[in-house]
Amino acid sequence: MMASSYNAKDEDGHLPGSVGSGGPGAVKSKKPDNTAFKQQRLPAWQPILTAGTVLPAFFMIGLIFIPIGIGLLVTSNNIKEFEIDYTGVDMSSPCFSCSQNYSWNSTSACTCSVPFTLDQPFESNVFMYYGLSNFYQNHRRYVKSRDDSQLNGDKSSLLNPSKECEPYRTSDKKSIAPCGAIANSLFNDTLELFYNHPNGSKITIHLEKTGIAWWTDKHVKFRNPGGNNNNLSSVFRDTSKPVNWHKPVYELDPSDPDNNGFVNEDFIVWMRTAALPTFRKLYRIIQKKKDNMTPTLPPGNYSLEVTYNYPVRSFDGRKRMILSTISWMGGKNPFLGIAYITVGSVCFFLGVVLLIIHHKYGNRNNSADIPN
Amino acid sequence: MLRRRLNRLCGGDEKRVDSRTIYVGHRPCPDTEAFIPSKFCDNRIVSSKYTVWNFLPKNLFEQFRRIANFYFLIIFLVQVIVDTPTSPVTSGLPLFFVITVTAIKQGYEDCLRHKADNEVNKYLVTVLEDGRSVKKESEKIKVGDVVEVVEDETFPCDLILLQSSREDGTCFVTTASLDGESNHKTHYTVPDTEKDLQALTATIECEQPQPDLYKFVGRMHIYKPEQEPAVRSLGPENLLLKGATLKNTKKIYGVAVYTGMETKMALNYQGKSQKRSAVEKSINAFLLVYLCILISKAVVCTTLKYVWQSKEGQDEPWYNQKTQKEKDTNMYLKMFTDFLSFMVLFNFIIPVSMYVTVEMQKFLGSFFITWDKDFFDPEIQEGALVNTSDLNEELGQVEYVFTDKTGTLTQNNMEFIECCIDGFQYKHRDTWSEVDGFTVTDGPVNKLQQKAGQEKEELFLRALCLCHTVQVKEAGSEEVLTDQVDGIDEMRPQLEEERGFIASSPDEIALVKGAMKYGFTFLGLESKSMKIKNRENNIEEYKLLHVLNFDPVRRRMSVIVQTKSGETLLFCKGADSSIFPRVKPEEVDRIRMHVERNATEGYRTLCVAFKQLSAEEYAVADTGLREARLALQDREEKLIAVYNQVETGMSLIGATAVEDRLQEEAAETMEALQGAGMKVWVLTGDKMETAKSTCYACRLFQRGTELLELTLRTLEDERLKREEKLRELLQEYHRKAVQDAPPVKAGVTRSWSTANQDYGFIIDGATLSIVMNPQHEVDASQYKSLFLQICQNCTAVLCCRMAPLQKAQIVKMVKTSKGSPITLSIGDGANDVSMILEAHVGIGIKGKEGRQAVRNSDYAIPKLKHLKKLLLAHGHLYYVRIAHLVQYFFYKNLCFILPQFLYQFFCGYSQQPLYDAAYLTMYNICFTSMPILAYSLLEQHISIEILLDNATLYREIANNAMLRWRPFLYWTLLGIFQGLLFFFGVRFLFSNPALQDNGQVFGNWSYGTIVFTVLVFTVTLKLALDTRHWTWINHFVIWGSLAFYVFFSFFWGGIIWPFLKQQRLYFVFANMLSSVSAWLVIIILIILSLLPEILLVVLRKPRGPHSRQMAAVTPLSYKHLKERY
């Protein structure tokens, strides 16, 4: 019925148009254009989600996710991770005295040695992290307290840092480089690792200082003023070191000019503020042995030598050292595997339930519909 | 002079303060104390709102009165003043944009109004000034000017008729554009005004302007040299109203008494107030909820912040010292600014962009109405017109339709359809008439066959020719021409067509024309003798003795004529109910069936009876009539008594059926509207009988409908006073229609359940005014509620004899009744303007009666039949679109801001934003705005054809179904669920932030970017799931904005931006994509958040009558619509 009325109207609509164009004056008709868009008749795909289309999708999700989840869980479980808290809260802890007697002004470094045992060998590259707890690197006042243009080597920002750096902007009427709370609180414990060989000798494990920061950060975002990594002491001449630092920025790594000043990787890693108050940051990398025969870290006794500089007791913080191997998915984290397995099974289960419902209930519904 | 003064002082004129004095032609009168040209307003019509000067401040003020705009202004100011986590630009820019766009739009609309006003105000009229005719712009007419108006012109202001070109000092006027009555009304000049207007010195005293069209009281003092001033009383018959049109009179002169905004027409207009749609009210309600959420979030965070800080070492650890300024700030001030900062941080939950999008959706969406070629009418070469785009969605929510009759339901074009003479049916139009199933006696009658006997036929036709008050239009030449060609048969029909008749009612003309078709032509009335030309082209002359006028109580009229042969005949025509008791019962049966059938078909039926009066009978009647006419007291009653006495014992000769042609598809349209659950009320200024038959013709009243009548006629009761009778009737009807009726389920009207008795309700204007303003104030609310309840239980309601403002009153009463239903008014004339303005949605029909209705309407359509598509298809779709738009906007901003809120628990309540500023700003503007805009313009969850075929689908969205609290709660819960999922999903992933295969760690910006990526994808895909109508635009926009997000993120993070203080996102996005874990978490979170939605869609069975059609469309298939090029 509707179609016929449409057709009738089309004829109506066409007649005056043709007359108008032929007639004298050829008045432009105000008749709306008969385009698909204007008439809301664009060809359209009209998908309708029905049990028929959704059920296979559920089974598919189930079938794909469960294996992925299992793979992830296995990978995560294969990652070796060792974690040790060296804050020194307990009386028995070797670093207890260091944590108690701490003051910023002390010139002599307090060191302590924490022994630990690895039960399993760590194959491949081993990554050494330090972890802090209850440290709010994501506090707003803290996050914004930096000057990225200073860190990018901008000369004017070097001498006149951003207001955001307050109260770590100037000291002794000289601008601080690098300014801001983040830089000021740079993690400055020194961690060293020794392997206590069963034969009694104490072998220093070589810790790689580079490759711990994002490549783009190290090469683009962070740059020493003048663009030249040499002669940093003169570049930073008119600036002052951050108040809590023991040494100026150009002495962060005097041995390697490409890892000194603003492009020091420890510094860059620190400057990438953590997302949560409990976090870990990459500290060193232990390269795997060349020969591939022996594990990077064989099981046995080790000792962690800490130069204890960084106070955390005042805000109830903790310091940890973490040794971890890495897989394609990153560090150890069973969450993803479990999540995938759960979602996969839920989907599969729902698929089965829906299938049953659809089979029983759907048929009955149809038969009930027809008499209506 | 003394007398006048005395008159005034003695209170001869009680309304002295309330009257105005007008000096005709501004000539000082000889004996007035002083010529005081009083100040009256000029004749300018102003409908515009702004001028160039006050536009900016007034418009800004009006815009900031909107709660949302004001809120954003406050947020912006807070951002400027207080140190907040986000920059003021993020909220200032969109606000500026919204304000500018709205201002431009409103300025443009006001500009159009100025133009329309100018058209009226600059119209040239002729004014008599010092004996010369001067052309003047209409707006310059002053009270007291003598104005000349020629035929077919409308009066530029309210005039007192001084002089007419007609000899008898009358003029004819049609007030179609004022009250919808298209008949010609006779107005009279003031008696004794001199022919020479130049010499006329007179003053007019009249009441101050008032809106009642039918009331006017005044007096005119005419001063003649060396004579006492003559006083003439003035009534409405002397007043020519602005907006009315002069007809059949060459030229008149009148003096302006009311001008401009004081004319009765202007007073009958209501101010065009801003109409707000129900959706907007819902938005505001939701807004309040979200505002509460926002404030509580901010309060929670502020409180927790100070609780957290009270712990030792948390507030200001050594690594994060405060600045000196911060330390110095007062604690309470700090708490307050913290609160404001949280407000600013979470303020995105109430998005400015929603207002932009809603405005854009409405503005752009309304183009589809103007573009719709189905609304194009080839006759007037025009399509639909959208005056306000604010109300698109309201079209999908209409519960009550108030329609005008004349020109809207009907074409106001009477046509003689058939007659019935002595029980035989005569149909003129058909070449052959079908055998009628109702009457056995009916035979196929084509031309006047010798069925009823020639004598009877001719008697009937003579009756039609004589029994009326029609005048022949004096078109001199035609008359002569007719005489000349007399006898030439071929020429006759053409000339007859041209013959013009004037009558107070269009169906009288139809009857006379009908008689003409059968060969009897009425030639005119000349000095009390009526001439008719019979079939043999002989001219018969009858002497008109008496006209027994029509009145609504008797519902019949009669004439008494004398034939040449000296016989005295009485012809009477009237409604069946008033004729049948006065004729012989055996004649009635033969005709009744015809009459009833015709009536239910919607024709207006009249019965014709006649009676031969003997000389004695006539003598009695004649004296009776003369005496009654001269009676000073109770003249009306006495006249009616005589009429009744005369009109007895007649014999019935036939019945006529006249059709008031309905508009195209009027009945179908009304049926569709009722099927869609709307209640249709007809509000008309016309007579009850006429209106009733139209209702039958439109199938608003059906054969089985029981009519509940509440009119002056039913209120006539010997025993009771009107009001008591009214109360009685109201209670009786209430019992019938409300109490006895079985409870009707909401949303299902009775056309559904045919078992129920249908009721139709009829009320007229006079009765309505008693209902609205009874003598005792106490009763008012009781009457009103009874009246409303009855009306709400009736299928259709007919209100006749309504003044324009009464129409608006009815609309207002329904509008403010319980549940505040959405009302729609549709009309075509100026008399409908007030109801068009009053209703939620006003629709104008681009009819022949001027453009007043169109200009004041929200939407204008060429024909009534277009209403169906406008409501059922456009209205439905717009409502669904905008409802989804609103819900979606709230939802997407809830799950946008919820993670940010949760993050506060992990960052020491420090107002640290989770997302980068660019993401915060762009989220609503770029990443997620286009898909929903495209959706809200193009979505057709049910195709237009199906919507038009199944009117009942309209009921599914009735009562704002998609914006009620339940769906709102659903969307809110969905938003909360997804927000929680996004945040905690990533939170668990970040329990070990070493997510890259080179052991490097991610920071807080990576965290935010992962959450944001999941968010953008989920929110967009959720919309994709809801989209039922994927055009290429939807595809382009949905996939395009996802691609744009990815592209933008790369771009934004790929460059060290020199103008940015912090390079927070530098390569964050690229690094994120290099991490497999990030990919995996993004995928699983998206799927997990969409899972419940998919599950619900599957479990929710398609219900209702359209389930089968829905299933008929094969899933996942391109539906190729028939292209009609």
Number of domains of chain A: 2
Series of H and E elements of chain A: HEHEHEEHHHEEHEEHHEHEEEH
Strand content of chain A: 15-25%
Measured as a percent range, the helix fraction of chain B is 40-55%
Got a strand count of chain B? 34
In total, how many beta strands of chain A?
Answer: 12
> What is the share of helical residues of chain A?
25-40%
Rg calc of chain B: 37 Å
If interface size is counted as residues with C-beta under 8 Å from the partner's C-beta, which chains form the largest one? Answer: A-B, 112 and 104 residues
Active site (chain B): 404
Transmembrane segments (chain B): 64-82, 285-308, 339-358, 918-938, 968-990, 1005-1024, 1036-1057, 1077-1099
Domain P-type ATPase N-terminal (chain B): 38-91
Organism (chain B): Cyprinus carpio
Fold and architecture overview:
The complex is a heterodimer of chains A (372) and B (1125). Chain A has 372 residues and is an alpha+beta fold. Chain A is extended and about 80 Å long. Chain A is built from eleven helices and twelve strands. Helices cover 34% and strands 18% of the residues of chain A. Chain A folds into two domains: 55-79 and 333-354; 81-325, no CATH class. The longest helix of chain A has 36 residues, at 334-369. Chain A has helices spanning 2-22, 51-78, 96-100, 140-143, 148-151, 155-159, 181-184, 215-221, 232-235, 265-271, 334-369, and strands at 44-45, 81-85, 110-118, 126-133, 170-171, 174-176, 190-196, 202-204, 239-240, 279-286, 300-308, 318-325. In chain A, strand 7 and strand 8 (202-204) form a beta hairpin. Helix content of chain B is 45%, strand content 17%. Chain B has a nine-stranded mixed sheet with strand order 14-33-32-31-15-27-30-29-28, sandwiched between helices. In chain B, strands 17-16-26-25-24-23-22-21-20 form a nine-stranded antiparallel sheet, with helices on both faces. Chain B is α+β, with helices and mostly antiparallel strands and 1125 residues long. Chain B is elongated and about 125 Å long. The interface between A and B is large, with 112 and 104 residues. Strand 1 (44-45) of chain A pairs antiparallel with strand 34 of chain B, so a sheet runs across the interface. Chain A: The chain crosses the membrane at residues 48-74, 335-357.
